[in-house]
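Sample 1 of the test manifest.
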Amino acid sequence: MNTALRISHVGLRGIVGQGLTATHVMEFAAAFGTFLEPGRPVVLGRDPRLSGNMIREGVVASLLACGHDVIDLGIVSTPVVQHAIQRLDAAGGIAISASHNTIDWNALRFFGPSGIYLNTAESGELLDIYHLHRFRFEEWNKLGKLTVSSDAIDAYLDELARVFDLERLRPLRVVVDCCNGTSALILRRMNDRFGCGFILINERVDGRTVAHTPNTSASIVELQLGPLMQPLQADAGFLFDMDADRVALADEQGRGVSEELVLPMLADHLLPQSEGKLIIANLSSTALLEDVAARHGARVLRVPVGRQAAIDALSTYRPEQIALAGEGTGAVMMPQFRFVYDGIASMLAILTMIRDRGQTVSQILAGYPSHHILKAEVPLTSPNIPALLMELQELFPDGTMDRSDGLRISWPDRWFHVRVSQTEPIIRVIAEQRDSEPRELFETLLDRVRSLN
Amino acid sequence: MAREHLLKVGVSGVRGVIGGFLTPGLGASFAQAFGTYVGKGRVVIGRDTRTSGPMLTHAVNCGLLAAGCEVIDLGVMPTPTIQMYISHVKARGGIALTASHNPPEYNALKLFNREGLFFNQYERSELLDLFHQSQFTQAGNDEIRTVKQDLTTAPALHIDRVLRHVDADRIRRRRFRVALDGVNGAGSEMSVHFLGNVLQTQLEAISVDPTKVFPRIAEPRPDTLTELAALVRRTGADVGFGQDPDGDRLAVCDETGQVLDNDDVLALAVQRALTHTPGDVVVNLTTSSTIDDIAAQHGRKVYRTPVGEANVVEMMQAVKAAIGGEGSSGGIIYPAVHLCRDSYTAMALLLDLMAETGRTVSELVAGLPRYARLSGKVPFEHGRLGTLMQGLEESFPDAQTNRMDGLKLLWEGRWLHVRSSNTEPLLRLAVEARTAEQAQSLFNDAWQRLTS
């Protein structure tokens, strides 16, 4: 059970009961209560996992004890929490959600003012307070108060309705796999309020059962939505993780669209209307981004894998300079939405794109150069990763090299990336090539990694 | 010099000052130990009106849910009401979040078993071991239950139980004028309802706003109930009742504005109980000999226990007592209603006694056997406790001794009791004799020996 608890810059997560306990939750929330400036409330929301009931109680207790008023939104998506933080001018917030992990996991995710993720300096301070165990508990007459708010989803939808012309999207036939998560609550409400007519599957929200792993990968999309698309004559299919910050897509013929393609599609859609001409993406995501960026006179900034690196990069630019940020997992941040990963907003942007162009999903995708990506995981056994990376580097002296996260070497028509996962004891090997599979390059890399590892 | 015990984790649970001492994490861990001990199932919680109550409620909920328990939260509720509800809903146990009569900066967890009784000494020490071992039940996602609220069932249940053991119509017919000081505690609303609507007294109530802080020292004693006494005099009330924040203790003021000795309140309740209920009497070592005299009048026995409600309750259960209590700290335990200290039962029994006899409170008290009582606190140095007690015992070779809880020395018609406080490095000295002179002389004698 070595993977049951993880405490890092992105927060606290683990398998509830097997690694993640009430004590971890209370101490981490107390650290956050100590970290935040006093005086303004803290917003709280959770995904439907049953363990959220327990974690919610602990988080509320610790925040009240630190003197913060707490506004609990109940079961909502993470983007709704982030939206409410800004709307309510809160000091920050916590989303209780393990997002795309399996149902037995849960996590605390921390946000600062305006609902933005903590940058590395801030999350480092939070971790230090947690490890020091010196919490600022207030005296008996200075404790916070809890209020429960039930209108957060509606307020969030008000904003979506301002940014997107929902009326115009109504003719589209859209099937959504809610993965028994918070997207079900939001989309049902959109159907009620705006007559959206989304067809929902796996929409039961009981926090106990999920129809499948809540992961936004093309293979799950194909399995879940593939058989439904043509019989329902749907224009597009979408699949969300538990807290609706990531999205995956199926085309009108029932084919799962690679999770790598969501970000380039949205870039293609948003760049013409965007003042900013910079896309922030990680080293492992598709080179199609560079192709799309070139069409619109934009450029791509490649950063290490993980949300933290993207956040840190974001914070070094003015918001108006940036068009889009994201990763090849279906997690995309748009400037209109405070640069938070928002799967529902991503879905609405893609639907708008379909309407604007009058094209099907597959027609839109056919307009892009085809890139073929191969991915593998090799168990990590060697302690000497630097030597391994050096060997690989010497093997390919002609490419453009990036050593900011493992090793990425790129050529005009192909690239590869070898890095050690931050979350599991594995080495990830990825290679991509235009027009055809980079089978030979990929095998060479795998051979080398396996023999040197 | 007194080392104040700002946090106490022990066999009676956890109690401490909110802030750096009784932290939410500690509350959750203790609750998780409790949940581990009682097992997955229903656990009832409720709290008094302290400002830290909501915070601590969430902490305790967290620990209980983490242990796989289902929580029924009664919200702000008197402790005896919580206790009765526990057995009514067949829960596995319950926790009251209250530091009872302690100052507002304190809070605590009071622990109850499935019958709604205080944990006995074996249960308490087993739970404490579990807490220290930190080997808690850790429920996984599919075993984690929810917190349900039930704000209405418990008060009705409690009041119904009390009414079964008094002649409510007799009380109603008298239309007593009653003064109440609810200390803005957990009983505030229920007491107003109970006295005003249910027993139809003409109620004059102060400090019955549960959203406000305690307006006086929380422990109901003669010196803390001056406002109640003034209210009684101003309104010409027949009786005044003073509650503590969690509604288990009760002090009583007679129609002249004189606050009774808590021992005398217990004595009146014992009198009332023994005329209606078979069984013996259980009180702690510090409780007045008045009780022995009354019991003797009814041909009943008195059992003495160490100080502490849990000790009294344990003995009461063992001997199937008719009534019990702890004189000095105020509060009576009448098992016919429930085996817990309960101010509502105390109020009802007293009103019923007034209605039955047609006597005023001062007349009822005048009819009690009279003793003079004195008490005081003596600081002691660490390590000197044994020497002090031993010295005291040797200087009174003629006395009968009881070492059950500190040292009690008894003679015909008088006694003294010395025990160390559980919460501070203090010796509590209590003395009782037939006359004030005898009491003062014995008190002075003992005081001198303890301080020299």
